[in-house]
């Protein structure tokens, strides 16, 4: 199973944004990573730009089982359920949903959900044991 961790960084003063991802295998070993400068965009567009790169890499490397972890619950929900007809990013969402259907097994989660899962398991965010 491959895990894709997607993140974005934005400068509140300049409005410039970077997006990137890290691909790790089931033993948490680094496989691949990237970062791109997107200049000035809305947060949703940045998240989708990162997903675009993730899915392109998944396709190019013929990965069939993977987990995508991202910040935006709204984008995760749209990738699962689809976007409303009037949503400005609907075409991109439809394209990415079609790309996801090709995969044999994938999971879309938010970073908050991942943190909560580790806390329920008594582990830290990086999988280290926490608590007694």
Automatic annotation (TrEMBL):
The record's GO molecular-function terms, alphabetically, read: nucleic acid binding; RNA-DNA hybrid ribonuclease activity
In its UniProt entry, what is this protein called? Ribonuclease H domain
Gene3D superfamilies attached to this UniProt entry: Ribonuclease H-like superfamily/Ribonuclease H (3.30.420.10)
> Pfam families this protein is in?
RVT_3
Q: Which residues form the RNase H type-1 domain?
A: 18-105
Q: Which InterPro entries match?
A: RNase_H-like (IPR053151), RNase_H-like_dom_plant (IPR044730), RNaseH_domain (IPR002156), RNaseH_sf (IPR036397)
